[in-house]
Design a protein that fits this description.
Four copies of one chain form a homotetramer. With 368 residues, chain A is α+β, with helices and mostly antiparallel strands. Chain A contains seven helices and 20 strands. Chain A has two domains: 280 residues, Aminopeptidase; 75 residues, Beta Barrel (OB fold (Dihydrolipoamide Acetyltransferase, E2P)). In chain A, the strands form four sheets. A ten-stranded mixed sheet of chain A has the order 1-2-4-3-7-11-9-10-12-20, sandwiched between helices. A four-stranded antiparallel sheet of chain A has the order 8-17-19-13, with no helix packed on it. In chain A, helix 1 crosses helix 7. Bound molecules: zinc ion (4 copies).
Chain lengths: 368, 368, 368, 368
């Protein structure tokens, strides 16, 4: 018997008059147990997360989670369907250029956001618990208000973001599954999650500060982090952006491994029962980099590029990361950095114009 | 005899190894007279501004300006060359989605910007004039520093913006010529330029506050505006974004009229001698709207759209602005607003998805 | 009461798993009366034809046709939904480049087509009427066979074309509604339809020979034309490609006029009763050009282009058709032809690369 | 000392007014020795061929060829520069959809082509040698005529093709280097080149008939093949399309191996001296497939696809080639064929719409 509900939410009427939907799978659990929300594919060509959620649907059917788990396997069908040649141009709105993952609602904005300072003051006498209830209630209420605005006041990307955020706001753990260009698996974690991030079993971690720049993870954790700091208590809600390797790639075999890390994390969070045989408890060693030390290396020229190193390995200062041939017959141009680095993401194609994002690297890191 | 210099600046080596350049035309004038910088086409398919600059090159050849005038007729050749079908996708970086006009350097940023407060304090004793000299010197010096960074630290759009800003920073008047979708001519002006904006002879004005959001005009005027406010003096530098009608359109005849407004403004600014026969001194009446009252109306559904009104006219509340047919045979959906408005920009195509920018309208305005 | 059926046919499962459909409206009529099939939008951004069919649905609801009329208002939803910037790239498959209107099945191909020569020989004794019945039966049967091939043997564009052709093959009149770039209304007619084409009330006519190049009109008329020639009888089936002005444009008001021409034609064909008050019987004078005299004029250089003439007017030899500015400050380049012409289609944007289709012109024509 | 000339040929003035060029490297050799022409990148994102030519330029500098060798490393800079997201949409004209490799001039067309039948008749008495001289002379002369047409009569793609064909027509061996989607290296060879194709050291061969479909190889060999058949002599001119693996990929290391196969072939043809130490003489065993047995397998549905097999291996009938997940939670759909096959090319992305080219396979082959 199916132990989940499968609903669809219409998200966009197309020029042809047809309506694109997102699918929502919900495993209803004990409301007193921490819940989770997992989505994938906000940028379209991020397929591995969909594979992971496909695995999780089957896994949770056999091993029902204790807490409620909500799964959105393809968060942005419009972006997924948008092809040029055989590739998917999914990362941004093809009409306006907006990055789909920069359109979430800022819960702490000055205009129609929540005044945490004030919230804390007003209810200083309340138990920490009830303040948290009030915060969630307020977040939910305000997102509902946003969603009730007339359609003429919301672009597609914004409305989609609000729709997803409305579901995510109910959860205690939020995992936003993405893929990057050619890349090694890595995760963006809030700085306060230094211990729990280990359980995801992803060895490359970017720690991000309490700063809203429009993304889902920030949209979820910023208000909770701010409240927790004011109350000097641990932050009860966690949100991560997980980058599951190469865009345009999809592997059911790898999805199993990716999903196992997520399940391991959910066990640790109390959303799932431990599984047997128990897997590796957590990543043995993490390479952790602060967001400010995550550097984009732009291509210094145009031409054909060959990477000299693989993602995930440590490259000493001055060692070539890539070699670029501007034209056949010309001398090749070597790209090296004055500092040691770990390449995390590489440009997807060997043909590149000057000034594109050749590499993203950890320029400093700690092993933890 | 040619009374100007024509230089080219390489801006991007392409994948093919060839280099795209921008052309710079410079009419050297009396350094004690206010200077001007005019560019066009930062978004690629903004052709009318190029036509205007083509006119100005010929006009200034016959009627040399008193002050130095620098002209960049096609600021972003990469964006101009980027075709899909017969149309130009020029508005944003086709690889990353960045709006080309959001990448300028913020002169007042906290990291490597100018501390105006401090500047004023330090040199309180100085004449206003010398403070202004120091500000311009500092802006120039810091832009030079930015441009001297290694190429691996600058994306194409950023480097292009810095290159243009470096030229604009020397001028007393900066005009950034753009086009929008189907639109009536309009101009973005800083609020302090209520009087001078009239001289441009463009009847629709958007007044913008002292706030940096990445655009050329803001990049130019924000530091000067801030300094002037601190010194309680009029702002000596002006910058405008001028929208010269429809993207993809180009008319030499209209360019003459557009250029005459610009020349009229430059006469008023002291950069050019009055021309004879003297044209209309300034726009007789302006429709002026504050940026916060400039509303984007999103398409509430997908389908085929027919606009019921033309840009530039006043539309009473509840009157249909557009009618959308989701599918042949369906009832049509009317789009109206609960308030009077003036439509300024309309979506370029009659086929649209839900949630695109159907219209941009003045929701409140004054006639001045 | 609705006097038509409205069905949907699934045509493509997208990457997101959702299915795009086409809508089919069918007004069932007397089977002994000539029938008609009208479709629009095979190239996506061809919106005026959809407006026309929307009008026809409402018109036929009030004035039921005598013969069966089948209407497909948006034949290619995939192409219609494919946006880059605000414009629609609809003309060809964004993955493979195939022109959507070159993928129909050639009824006379040597491999699995119909051998008309043989058909005529075998049944020489039959009445002309029964041969025609056999041809239609054969065409239908073979199209069914094509459609029953496994999906792994058919690309999307091919399957879509077969699906549409299967419906069109049953009709006596087939109208394929398109739009071109900036253009005057014009029609492609088979040479044998010199008289009937007048009834469409479209003043610019291109007469095409009995040659299959992949388009719907040719797919429909080639076998009938060939049979009629062999039997020396008038061709009973007619097919036209009608170009209803500018792509990306949509006007309900113009749609009324366009539809009236089509209704007038259907009255003449016997599919509809005459309407009252009777409209103009047929176009008073037509400008008719043979396909071989329809010339594409390529842009001799890149730059910004301004057309000097409007579509539909006669332009004398040597008179400039367009003026191109390669760069601001350069001499402009005039484009003229050594012969008189009538421009029919113009490039959609004023920014163009060398070697694009600047114009399509009648280089010779007769007035009829 | 440089033993080659390096010239550039302007091929397209862009909308920005700048001109794109192609580079031509020419190693002048003994005119009595067979010559070769090698180009790469007609489809833009075909980078490995450019790497191969870069290698050949350096190799021939050290080991001058005996016969003349002409190298064009990036035949279509416009296609190479055309990016959407990080990928290159190079395969077809982004404005018109034309496949860049279908625009060559058909030397045997009825309108302005060469009448081989007649040529043979007229000069029956001549030595075979002089007939060949006459053919080459005629081909050259007619291509010159084509190129001298006004620019208004030639689209960019056509003019580019003619420019390249004009150079290729002088050579005795023509190698057109391409890449496909995800693919194993393979070569298109004319059926008469059964023996010589071995020397290229590429194990997968497609034998194509004497039929012009617009491609460079056909444009070169069709007239020679036809003449040779009429004279019953071996065909003196050879032309191949070589597919050097994945589009968007570039490896200097692999380029060495690819180039060695080409050099081996040129040695066999007499254009180059044998190299020492001598490499493998020729491929040990080839999998050869006739063009008619080369099948495109279309995706039967849309969704996320995982290939179950690798390119180049034999897959038994009924064994899954790919598995498609239409939506998370759905049953997966297996794609298998009723016959044994060798997959040669796979779709580049794991996200696909119904009806795209999932695979190209050898459906029958001989090992030779
Ligand atoms: Zn992403
Ligand atoms: Zn602009
Ligand atoms: Zn069309
Ligand atoms: Zn190719």
């Amino acid at each position: 018997m199916k132990n989940y509900t499968h609903t669809t939410i219409p998200v966009r009427t197309l020029a042809s008059g047809q309506i694109l939907n997102i699918d929502v799978f919900r495993f209803e659990g004990d409301p007193s147990v921490p819940s989770a929300y997992i989505q994938s594919g906000m940028h379209g060509a991020e397929l591995q997360g969909t594979a992971v959620i496909d695995f999780l649907i089957r896994f949770f059917t056999d091993h029902p989670p204790k807490g409620t788990v909500t799964l959105v396997p393809a968060a942005n069908p419009y972006a997924l369907n948008n092809k040029t040649g055989e590739y998917t141009q999914g990362r941004f709105d093809p009409t306006y250029g907006d990055n789909w993952n920069r359109l979430y609602w800022d819960a702490l904005n000055n205009e129609d956001g929540i005044d945490i300072e004030n919230l804390v003051k007003t209810i200083r006498s309340d138990a920490q618990n009830s303040i948290q209830k009030i915060l969630r209630h307020e977040l939910t209420r305000k997102l509902e208000q946003q969603l009730q605005k007339p359609l003429t006041e919301m672009g597609y990307g914004r409305k989609l973001a609000l729709t997803l955020q409305r579901m995510a706001v109910e959860a205690d753990s939020v995992l936003d599954l993405h893929c990057a260009s050619h890349s090694v698996r890595h995760v963006y974690a809030p700085e306060y999650a230094r211990q729990t991030v280990r359980y995801l079993n992803i060895p490359y971690v970017l720690f991000i500060p309490n700063l809203f720049a429009g993304a889902m993870d920030e949209a979820v954790f910023c208000p909770w982090w701010t409240l927790s700091q004011k109350l000097s208590v641990p932050c009860p809600v966690e949100a991560y952006t997980i980058e599951l390797g190469n865009q345009e790639a999809y592997s059911a075999k790898d999805a199993r491994g990716d999903a196992m890390g997520i399940i391991n994390y959910l066990v640790h969070r109390g959303t799932c029962d431990p599984i047997k045989p128990k897997g590796r408890d957590s990543a043995e060693s993490l390479f952790a980099c602060r967001l400010q030390d995550y550097k984009t290396i732009y291509s210094p020229t145009g031409g054909l590029c060959e990477f000299s190193t693989v993602t995930g390995g440590i490259v000493p200062a001055q060692e070539p990361l890539a070699v670029i041939l501007t034209k056949a017959g010309n001398e090749k141009i070597s790209v090296a950095l004055p500092y040691d680095c770990i390449p995390i993401v590489q440009y997807s194609s060997a043909a590149l114009h000057q000034g594109v994002e050749l590499l993203k690297v950890f320029s400093k890191w700690e092993v933890m």
